[in-house]
Specification:
This protein is an alpha+beta fold. It has two domains: 2-255, Probable tRNA modification gtpase trme, domain 1 (Gyrase A, domain 2); 305-379, Beta Barrel (Elongation Factor Tu (Ef-tu), domain 3), CATH 2.40.30.110. The protein contains ten helices and 21 strands. A six-stranded mixed sheet has the order 1-10-6-9-8-7. The chain has a six-stranded mixed sheet with strand order 12-13-14-11-5-15. β13 (204-209) and β14 (218-224) form a beta hairpin.
Amino acid sequence: MTDANTPTDDTEIVADAPEALPLDLWHRNKGGRMVEFAGYHMPIQYEGIMAEHLWTREHAGLFDVSHMGQLLFTAEEEGVNVAAALEALLPADVKGLGAGRQRYSLLLADNGGILDDLMVTHLPDASPFDAPGGYYMVVNGATKWEDIGHLREYLPDEVTLSHLYEQALLALQGPEAVTALARLAPGVADLTFMTSGAFTIAGVDCWVSRSGYTGEDGFEISVPAEDVEKVADALCALPEVKPIGLGARDSLRLEAGLPLYGHDLDEETTPVAADLGFALSKRRREEGGFPGHARIMAEREQGSILKRVGLVVEGRQPVREGALVLDAEGNEVGRVTSGGHSPSTGQPIAMAYVPLASAVAGAKITLSQRGKIYTGTVTPMPFVPHRYHRKGA
């Protein structure tokens, strides 16, 4: 395939030293405590994780997610079916996406394992990307170079991949996000969950989707990196909005039951085991044509050996990633992949892979962490109800 706008030597990009995001100095000036994450310096907190978490649940938090990979797929010539090419690698119904609609999907390995989870959008004729009928994709920052390499290898030459490295990405999340953003971008309140459109914010042309990673209503905003500080300043000048760090982003997504790639998902885990069956659209399940189809369909019928579940942990001490799931004889039969204190519910929660027979609500799960034994109860996710703004709501 053709790979436009991507440096030819990816190894020069993935350097040993963390890179700086376009808003690096902005974060530091606002008191952000910076840490290394996904190859970048990123703010883990400003005022404290608990306070930032609760502010987002009650008001609106602004997250810098510019480390994510923003990719554009277009046809080299008329008649090339970009959607069909993407469907050869994803289990989503890409062909059925209307203009301005987006969908959660998975980049799959030949064995049905998950290489990454992502969002794909069918662009309308008018967008800041000047790619009528093209497809816009957001992939995880920690895997974006591997994703680009995989896509470059398996998509046909007639499809052009453009890495939009000149774009920054902001996420505005929380129940007051729409009130705040609508003051700067009139008409944005008309978007519903998983729809997108072009808007001008603080004089800057942006691409805005009503989506996010906290379980709250909110928006993701793609903005030219050279103008992102102007947009961030305009948003944080609103009384509803505060900048929020990675720490609260992680606790918010955990409460929302949303998996994190490299922790809850990896290339040894299938969509069925990960409890992401909703990402396998009906037409694609029936037609096949995506990597690992036979294995994934067999697991849908027979069940996977392990399944991702939510746990509420007894006591006050959280269990963390890497804690063991034990059977009655003390043998390791699974593992905790995310865990921590839930600021919204006031109790320890976790995600874990447990044997299929134990993956039922109310089941008691024995956990071992640093030689101590804990008890978790399988609980339906999300731990905190999603508040997405869906059509007709």
